[in-house]
Design a protein that fits this description.
Blueprint lengths: L9 H11 L7 E10 L4 E10 L2 E6 L11 E4 L4 E4 L1 E6 L7 H9 L3 E6 L2 H6 L2 H10 L6 E6 L16 H9 L3 E7 L2 H6 L2 H12 L3 E4 L6 H10 L3 E2 L5 H9 L3 E5 L7 H8 L10 E4 L13 H10 L4 H7 L2 H7 L16 E4 L9 E4 L2 E2 L6 H5 L30 E5 L5 E5 L15 E7 L5 E8 L7 E4 L7 E5 L2 H13 L3 E6 L2 E7 L11 H17 L7 H7 L8 E4 L2 E4 L4 E5 L1 E2 L1
Parallel strand pairs: 1-4, 1-5, 6-7, 7-8, 8-9, 9-10, 11-12, 12-13, 17-20
Antiparallel strand pairs: 1-2, 2-3, 5-14, 14-15, 15-16, 17-18, 19-20, 19-22, 20-28, 21-22, 21-23, 23-24, 25-26, 26-27
Helix pairs in contact: 5-7, 9-10, 11-12
Length: 582
Amino acid sequence: MKEQLYRWRNKQIRQHTAVIDGEIAPSLVLKNATYLNVFLKQWVKAHIWIYDDRIVYIGEEMPEHVSDETDIVDCAGQYLVPGYVEPHVHPFQLYNPHSFVEYASKRGTTTFVNDNLMLLLLLQKKKAFSLLDDSQTLPVSMFWWARFDSQSELRDEESFIDDDVVLDWLSHNAVIQGGELTNWPEILSEDDRGLYWMQEAKQRRKVVEGHFPGASPKTLTKLKLLGADGDHESISAEEVYNRVSLGYYTGLRYSSIRPDLPGILAGLSSYGGQFYDYLFFTTDGSTPSFYEQGVMDRCIEIAIESGVSTEEAYAMATINAARYFGIDHRIGSIAPGRIAHINFLDAKDAPTPTAVLAKGEWITFEGYAFQRLTPNIEWPRYGLSELTIDWSLREDDLIFSSPIGMTMLNDVIMKPYLVQSESQSQSLSTADETANVMLLDRDGHWRISSFLRGFTKSIGGLVSSYSNTGDIVLIGKNTDDMNQAFERMKELGGAIVIVNQGEIIYELPLPLQGVMSDLSMDDLMVKERELKTILKEHGYPFNDPVYTLLFLSSTHLPYVRITPKGIIDIKKKEILFPSVMR
């Protein structure tokens, strides 16, 4: 019998101790194992006994009692390390929670701490909690956050995030973190509701994760006083050092937007002190094709290449994150009492495993555990069905007018500009990089439109049901193409669709509420690369268009955003141009 949701029952624990006494045979014995003891930071030789999903013994002895069902594996010549921990997952970057962890587990990442934002926005709480509970049957460890803000400006945010919702999430056994605090400036100055939720997280002995890009030591000190425990927004070795020196656990990021890890590690070599115990890795919700390099295994590889010892590098991907979350009694090490998450390596400095054991199940053997245990996820029973839109754009929806436009500085940062003259024609000129842009309520109640410079020179119409708020993004130079792309997106039940000169040149169905794909990660990578190629051919000058679509409405980034309330000046928190009812 496997771990029952969030803890082992008394009967199971008695069975585990009975294995030591020789009364019950272990399920699996890993003999002649050389494993990394993360407490000693040494490689140790031993035999490892496992019963169902739990490590019950490590030492010099072989079990007195084995049965026909006991699997004995000789690990001579291999190196065993704990399953890796990804402590900061956004499991909805076109992929879904299941497809991401299935892919990552085959490369050794067996524990995930997931953002709950899309579950808050898209699902009823009861269905979301059913998804959390059912995820415990997967052959990985799945944990979640409790968000305190929407990361945008919703017209009815309190219907999604209020005291009852946040406290119920914080009380759920699968939730081990409050935050991340993308609204930290408000909490620092005047948001007593957010501060109250931070204290409630602490009361429940759950950490509070920050989101503090560019914060000074003085600001970090004040946020520590408010209750922040960790932060993953450092972009330099100095920022990492400042956080650790103040007692923060600090995530080192290697993501598609911020691949900072190599530079940070190079810079840290100039600092004295023993700070590695307070560092861990994260890929921070990268877009699909970035993961061709790997997940946590790639981060460990970079650390080793940067001169970090193998023992410290593996600790940063395992026990450090487990200690941060207070779950090191269950994961993060190969030790008695821990869940049997174990990676098998050909060499100490080769972190991509040749075999993976997760909850005592072989992930990377033929017919690996995901396909055998959960061949199909019934997404509609959780409320993640196709997006249903039973309305169409009107002629006046496609009249674009705004005194404020937005200029892209990179994939995700935009500055405002004053619109000198407006064109209400069907097509914008391809002589410059100005396109129409609209955020449209998925229920058809409101819209906000403007102009966007720097996204494309020639695309007629792109429509995406994938966005930070779950609403519809339209970008393009031709209103007929935009309308055609919108109608095709509706037919697909949610999608990213590109139409140019009346021809559909790209489509990616997103059947999980218009936000997530049901494709495997490998297939999704192909589709994302195709999207990038098409957009670059039409003038997109940056590297991560998926994040552009996601963050158009995200108010934790400077300088201007298009949100459900309107176009907002982020620094001043002012609505420059309001959204309108349709």
